[in-house]
Write a structure and sequence with these properties.
The protein has 192 residues and is α+β, with helices and mostly antiparallel strands. The protein is 47% helix and 30% strand. The chain has a five-stranded mixed sheet with strand order 1-5-4-3-2. A hairpin with a 6-residue loop joins strand 2 and strand 3. The longest helix has 52 residues. It is rod-shaped, with a radius of gyration of 35 Å. 10% of the residues are buried.
Length: 192
C-alpha cells in the first residue's frame, strides 16, 4: 500500500500527455507573455471605452448648445416681430428657406412691412413649443408650436388675432447659429 502511495505522490518529470495538462503546462510556461497581452488588451478596451464616453459627452454638449441656439432663434424672432423689424426677421431665415405654399423671402418681407405699417402694436406668442432632432442630420431640428399673432390699431380700437399651428425645419450651422430652413406647416407671416 505504501509503495503504491509513494509512487503516486512522486514528482514526475515526464511531459504531460492529455490536452488539459498540455494547455495548463503551456499557460504556466507562457504566463508572463499572456498576462502582458491581456493587460494590453484591457488597457486598449479601457481607452476605447473612455474615448467613446468622451465622444458621447461632446455630442450631448453640442446637442444642448444647438437646442439653446434654436430657443435663442425663436426669442430673437419674437423680439424682431414685436419691434416690427422685418430685416432682422428675414435674416433669421436660411438663404435656402422654403415654404410649402410657395411663399418667397421677398414676399415675406413685403407682407411683414405692410402689416407693420398697418398695426400700431404686434404680439407674437407661442405655446406648446417642441424641438425634435432629425435622426438623419445632427444639425437639423423639427420645431413645432402653436402661434397666436395679435395686431392692434389704437385709433380705431381694433384688435386682430390669428392662430396657427406651425412646423418648421431649423438648421444649426458650424458656428452654432440657428436659422429657419423651411416652414413645413402653418401660415403666420401676414395678418390680413
Amino acid at each position: 500500500y505504501l509503495r503504491d502511495k509513494r509512487s503516486a505522490l512522486r514528482t514526475i518529470l515526464e511531459p504531460p500527455t492529455n490536452q488539459t495538462a498540455v494547455r495548463l503546462d503551456d499557460l504556466i510556461l507562457r504566463y508572463r507573455e499572456l498576462l502582458t497581452k491581456w493587460q494590453k488588451a484591457q488597457e486598449e478596451a479601457m481607452r476605447l471605452y473612455e474615448e467613446q464616453k468622451r465622444k458621447e459627452e461632446e455630442q450631448k454638449k453640442r446637442a444642448e448648445m444647438s437646442i439653446n441656439a434654436v430657443k435663442e432663434l425663436y426669442a430673437k424672432f419674437k423680439n424682431a416681430y414685436e419691434s416690427k423689424n422685418d430685416a432682422l426677421l428675414v435674416s433669421l431665415l436660411s438663404k435656402n428657406w422654403s415654404a410649402t405654399d410657395g411663399t418667397t423671402i421677398s414676399e415675406i418681407q413685403r407682407n411683414l412691412r405692410n402689416s407693420f405699417r398697418v398695426f400700431d402694436e404686434m404680439r407674437w406668442d407661442i405655446q406648446n413649443f417642441h424641438i425634435q432632432p432629425h435622426a438623419d442630420d445632427p444639425n437639423s431640428y423639427q420645431v413645432s408650436y402653436d402661434l397666436t399673432i395679435t395686431g392692434r390699431i389704437y385709433k380705431r380700437n381694433i384688435k386682430h388675432e390669428e392662430k396657427s399651428k406651425v412646423v418648421e425645419k431649423v438648421i444649426v450651422d458650424k458656428n452654432g447659429k440657428a436659422y429657419i430652413d423651411s416652414t413645413i406647416e402653418g401660415r403666420f407671416w401676414t395678418i390680413n
